[in-house]
Amino acid sequence: MSPSGFSTIRGQSPGFLRGLLSLSSRIKKTPSGYTNTLKGKTILQLFIENSTRTRLSFETATRRLGGANISFTAASSSVQKGETLLDTVKVIQQYGVDGIVIRHKSTGAPEWISTATRLPVINAGDGAHEHPTQALLDSFTLAEKWGSDLSAEKPFAGKSVMILGDTLHSRVARSNIHFLTALGARVLVCGPSTLTIPDRRLFPEFEVLAFPDSALPDVDAVMLLRIQFERQSQGAIPSLPEYRHFWGLTRDRAAVLKRDAVILHPGPIHHGVEIDSEVADSPRSLILNQVENGVYARMAVLAAAVGGVEP
Amino acid sequence: MILIRNAALLDPSRKLDGAKDGLRDLLVEGGRVKALDRPGSFDALPVREAFDVKGKLLAPGFIDVHVHLREPGHEAKETIATGLKAAVRGGFTSVAPMANTSPVNDSPLVTRLILERAKEANLARVYPIGAVTKGQKGEEISEIGLMARAGIRALSDDGFPVMNSAVMKRAMEYARMFDLPVISHAEDLNLSKGAPVTDGAVSSLLGLPGNPNASEEIMVAREVALARLTGARVHIAHLSTREGVEVVRRAKEAGVAITAEVTPHHLMLNENFILKCGHSCSHHQPRTDYKMAPPLRSERDQEALLEALKNGVIDMVASDHAPHGCVDKDVEFEMAANGILGLQTTVPLLLELVHAGKLPLSRMIESLTVGPARLLGVEGIGTLKPGAFADLVVIDPDEPWELKPGMIESLSLNSPFLGRKFKGRVLKTMVEGVWK
Fold it and tell me: Of B21, B148, B278, B349, which sits most exposed with the smallest number of CB within 10 A?
């Protein structure tokens, strides 16, 4: 891992990504081998945007590696007093930290912060740009389910993944497009045209379709995205019932999936909107596996970026 | 009397095209151009000072119709004195500062303050631009007539469009009485609000809201319609899209009184630079130095702008000199202020285009002299005809140099061109017969 940390999936080599998957897997198999990886080290958890799950996941990962956390959330502090983020980081750095995990509403913030500090900076989600550890845990979960050979050049060759929902505002979608295609999967992006990534020219190749029905019987995984009503999604679709009618993973739609096709969702879930509750709780749903694997994936990233472990 | 010897004169107003028309001597008296003739013609005269430019280029002092001098109100970014220092270093002898100061230049009091500070600085000429609407709020027209009396030469709410078409129509009707051009920051905010980059491949990749070309096209088309309706003179600031160029071209063909400017950065850069920069730049250059309004557009737009400048659809180059400090620029991309410095980089950047064979030198000079002088309606600037102000710039078109932070006269350093190696620089600038 580069000394500046882990800001994006874009630009990472497929070999490096496979290495992180292997490390996640090794840690999950023998967690006892990593309990001192971050011993004596402190990670700054800098969450300048509301997040509960990702923050808890990163904090848990740090503790399991033997490290300590300093947590900073935007609601509490100097951001509201008009201090710049750069000043905030410079100040907290003086408390003696060894790495920074940052969640921020602005694209590129982790990369930019990494220019102002010598510490490794790990992106926990920046705006609608990237969420690299989410993509790592998603591919880890899929690789585990599919028994993929991580030493192969393209472990996901022959697999098709549909990303269904608001990709326009989704950092999860962007990181996953880069990650899944690097592993050789075919990626289909599906959702209302008002909420779909409009220009694909700088991305690796993926397909776009407005409605999911024609492709659902052929895919190996459906990765659902949340409709982000607190963000920009508002006004882009006429109503929740209309969304559910055309794009929701209803019982009827789930019924046409391949027998062994799986469902992922980064959470939190809107039951009855993007997915019906029965489908979310069905055996093909890997949603809780994702949460569990998220801790191992983040342990892998922290171990590599801060703990000096070779991925 | 001052004698300037052996100059390759470039004066598009008199069709003088440099060395190919032979060198000239130029005589200055009482702050005005007295005469110009073959070398040696004035040697018998009792001159107080003689300066041999040794075959270098001599042009009328350049005019920048779009700068932000930040005073009053934002003196940490720039003052009128430092901005004018940057102007004369960059070859500009006249500048038109935009109205987005604090308080806004929407009353004769602010206009007079600006002119007084400019007089104290005693560097370049200043032709203030008054706000179209009070407080640049887009609601009520400002004291246009009183500001005209106080010395404004144009109107603009630059930084903001006048979104309400009825208000803009009224402003144009009113401005006509005072023969003031209305400068439009052409942007449909309903399409572009909160969008820090152009809509396209880069915005999609970065997950940033995109400002579509249509945002500019729609407003340029509206200004054309209102200009036709009111008979006012309309000028489009910082044209950035090929669609906007096309609307201006058609309007000109139809005889509408419309002019347009382009910035050096929209000619030299495009959206891809936002990706190329980032954290690897040597002198901790924030990526936000590529954040502008309008945003850097695509390569196709860049090409269309250059073509339009060459063929005259775009009348002039304006720097949109926009100083901002670290506290405005070394922040999150979406929060960062728009714009970059321009006064000291405009001439060397345009010379790059000239050296690359992409822009004729005479057209470059025209776009910095004749075009802007006509917009401001000022007699005796932008030309070297006898009787004109002795506002001059001496340029070595071939001298290699590198732009270093220490050379910047502005109070701010927000330029993506720091560290750039240029070929050709401004050697000397004269305003009204005095070297600055």
Answer: B21
